[in-house]
Amino acid sequence: MTPPSRTTSEGARTSLLSQGWCVCLLALVSCLLWGSAIPCIKLGYEFLAIDTSDVPSVMLFAGMRFMLAGAIALAATGIGRRRLPRVPRSSWHKVAKLALAQTIVQYVFFYIGVANAPGVRGSIINGSSTFFAILVAALVFHQERLDARKVFGCAVGFTGVVLANLTGGDLGGTMTFTGEGFILIASVSSAVSAALIHIFAQDDDPVALSGWQFVVGGTVLTCIGLVLGGQFGQIDPRGIGMLAYLACVSGVAYSLWSLLLKHNPTSRVVIYEFSLPIFGVVLSSLLLGEANSLPWYQTALALLLVAAGIVVVNLPNQKDRLSPLPAPRRRL
């Protein structure tokens, strides 16, 4: 009896990763992990005595986290193999572009922006990254069609994000380029990285790409932090533990995310990012003991709007079935 071919097994895996329930499960697991990173980063800063306004030290923390995340992702994928997952020499430009968009530009601008913008406005602007991801995929890279259904679903989900952040914080005042402007740049950079991984993963192992881009991007962030004088105020085993956990979060969540982006339209995956603020609020309450200032009905309504937005974007579209888009462009 002839054993199943590689093509057959690859096709079965592709089919599984394109199933609605599988996309929902893995996307929500990724967002839950990323949501847990929010309170754990705060705990890491506390245990290592890092002032959140000390950008170089924050960059050092982030760089070490992402370097370790890449090493963990590559080591986990290499279990059962005799060598770490490799990226062909001809594809290293893809690693560099992903590292620049996903790790270096996004987090440099994000951390500086957060330090210079009110928390509520920053959270709402950061929540717009899902919008940007769908717009970039449709209008810049032509990976899918931008129709009224997707726009409406994004609007509904974004309303949930805004509602989850209406806690009486500062929504007034003057917006600054180094504050809200930098967070906006970080959101656009995140959107570009989602489109790039969808394209690059068609020809290369998405887990290998994500692992190596974390190593490259984390190394750059670590060097930036060290050159600018970043340091840990103290070395605490709990802080090192948090750093290790955050590395696992990045390695696992982004690897799952990359696999989903390889086998699905960008909009079908990134719409789940609207659940991040909900997970962040709940987990911050549980892990940090932060009181949730939102009434229960406001939290429930925000969650309902986010879920509705996800459902609307994932509704089947008969027009797309009849006239599929061409394969993603690979010359980047």
Automatic annotation (TrEMBL):
Protein name in UniProt: DMT family transporter
Domain EamA: residue ranges: 24-165, 179-314
Pfam families listed in its UniProt record: EamA
Transmembrane segments: 21-45, 57-77, 98-117, 123-142, 151-169, 181-200, 212-233, 239-257, 269-288, 294-315
Subcellular location field: Cell membrane
Matching InterPro entries: AA-Vitamin_Transporters, EamA_dom, EmrE-like
Species this chain originates from: Enorma phocaeensis
Top-level lineage group: Bacteria
UniProt keywords, alphabetically: Cell membrane, Membrane, Transmembrane, Transmembrane helix
Family in the record: Belongs to the EamA transporter family.
Membrane-protein topology: Multi-pass membrane protein
